[in-house]
Amino acid sequence: MSGNSRKRRGDGRPTIAQVAALAGVGTMTASRALRTPHLVSDALRASVERAVEELNYVPNLSARALASKSSDVVVVLVPTLTQHIFSEVVKGIYDGLEGTPLQVQIGNTRYDAEEEERLLRVFLRQRPSAVIVSGTHQSKASRQLLERAGCPVVQIMDVSDDPIDRIVGYSHVDAGYAATRHLIEKGYERLAFFTGWMHQRAEGRLRGFEQATREAGIYRPDLIFRVEDRVSFDLGSTMAGPNRRFGSHPFSSPGLGRAMLSDALDLPRPPDAVFCNNDILAIGVLFEAHSRGIAVPDQLGICGFNDLDLMAAAHPSLSSLRTLRYEIGFESVQVIRRALDGRPDDQKIRNMGFEVMARQSTNRNGG
Amino acid sequence: MSGNSRKRRGDGRPTIAQVAALAGVGTMTASRALRTPHLVSDALRASVERAVEELNYVPNLSARALASKSSDVVVVLVPTLTQHIFSEVVKGIYDGLEGTPLQVQIGNTRYDAEEEERLLRVFLRQRPSAVIVSGTHQSKASRQLLERAGCPVVQIMDVSDDPIDRIVGYSHVDAGYAATRHLIEKGYERLAFFTGWMHQRAEGRLRGFEQATREAGIYRPDLIFRVEDRVSFDLGSTMAGPNRRFGSHPFSSPGLGRAMLSDALDLPRPPDAVFCNNDILAIGVLFEAHSRGIAVPDQLGICGFNDLDLMAAAHPSLSSLRTLRYEIGFESVQVIRRALDGRPDDQKIRNMGFEVMARQSTNRNGG
DNA sequence: CTGTTAGCGCTTTCAC
DNA sequence: GTGAAAGCGCTAACAG
To answer: Which of A31, A332, A345, B315 could disulfide-pair with A287, CB 3.0 to 4.6 Å?
Structure first.
């Protein structure tokens, strides 16, 4: 019986028109009372609020976005969700956005440029207010999509002299170089490099390692261990592509660290120090050393990368290169907010740097 | 000069009407060609696709959602983003959603019921297609919001006989009980319980521990170590509320595990085994034992909770209670998809269970 | 299989 | 400070 025309009907939920009617004001006033309360007289605002309460009114964001052409969505594309590194970045982003109306929307590219492109196409349909992507090696098409996105774009976790828009990150080559220098300065001479799956940024660290060892005249290609070379290591289901399904990544498994050290020690001239491309590998190396009774740092130096909490708490404590993941996430959002507010940015490129955390595991002569 | 009326203008981006015009078809045909290609003749579909290409058309999701009253958004509320446990859950959710048009939107409640309520209010404005919340202890208001959400709701990571809608999780009491039984069966008699910040589910585990130790007649309240009792432990910036800012959580810091073991060993009757409410604490305990030359498992048994990869790779390998985080995320999405497809669900409550992973750290008599 | 029409619920525009 | 009217871009509901 209820106006059963064949015309379309809403979903039955109260609209702002109903709120306005109940409050005895125009819809426009109701809308303003909700979005810009200070532009509305106290009395009207109060009655609108009462009506909202009574009807249990929930504004419809789609309608708002359509009418206002602004979505308040910040799209964030990360290569993995299960690595601590990126969850810290994401946390920095959320924290940086606190108090703004901006909503985060996360996509997982799985270290795959094509997937990134696909996700971009999907996410850009929302007409986001900003986009954050990881790394600087987007595909040509992705780059073009981002350039046309019509919103601020921030590339994070790396630096480049050719940003799409803005960049917040650090130099992986420099970081790899610094960590390696640290080992060299501590007196180690047979440096190994352990790495899992090599993505663009991991490659950068290796380049830094190679540069430092070459300069010191101690470069040993036979001491570079990549997961790809280790057919013997059972990655199990984790091998179904990077970052799929259960378990950890092929590039950050503690078991891989153990296996690699085991391999390295079989060499005629085994390493006296290992630079692990991530901390989890380093923990694995430490456990393997423990199990073999190898003294760390005297017989073997260990340095990780990223400096998870675990490193400082290990026994012996593990040296690492601290990267500023949370801060990068947080800062990238500040960059976006500035851009959205129309405040000019002095610099398009923010190099957040890093820090060598020297601990017991590389302190050969100390205690 | 360009039609500069004072009427509203779009944002300049091509609309489906322009695509249709260029393709020489009606807008409806263009719309169908994009959403349901099989319902459109090949020729028209091709010309629409060409027009899309040429204009660089990107559909506007707000308009679509408004017109179709369906947002394709799945809202996911988790208590923390930086704990491995939850990033694995989230990964399961993303993987389970693969191939559907559904988009994930994550909110971080910070283990705070009020924040959860606030986030719900905001997220529900999107008229989500489904909502996933963590735990079963929502506030009254949150519960009401969810009941009125008009979409499937899944509570995850716990079970309850009074679900809002559906539940996918496991019993924390049972899990705590099982882990404790394992220690008892291995012959340990002075069982300690180490825990960081206690949230609802962590409490459940403690109840299981208490029940098992009571039944065995070995309950020792002095061996229950909570982070709250340890004023001495410097949580630093992590104490600014759970899950804020830099660093790890007060409930999952390896340093905390070390400090707690240190405390416990000062007791006149120190524990001979420790059940850690999370794996990171357990790793810390292991390192502290190492540094003191305490033999694990002979002098000290260690059991963690969740079974991160690290546990199996440690030396000695660490026992833990394996929980199915990824699977819970994945399954919760299957539940949602079923509900959205109108397929009836045989059971509202899915108990995913857990598994005791017995390893060296609790194998007192073995090797 | 294709097209026309009438909204979806909100906000911009502009006049009061 | 307030409100009426006119869309925003798309799709449900028809009819052909």
So the answer is: B315
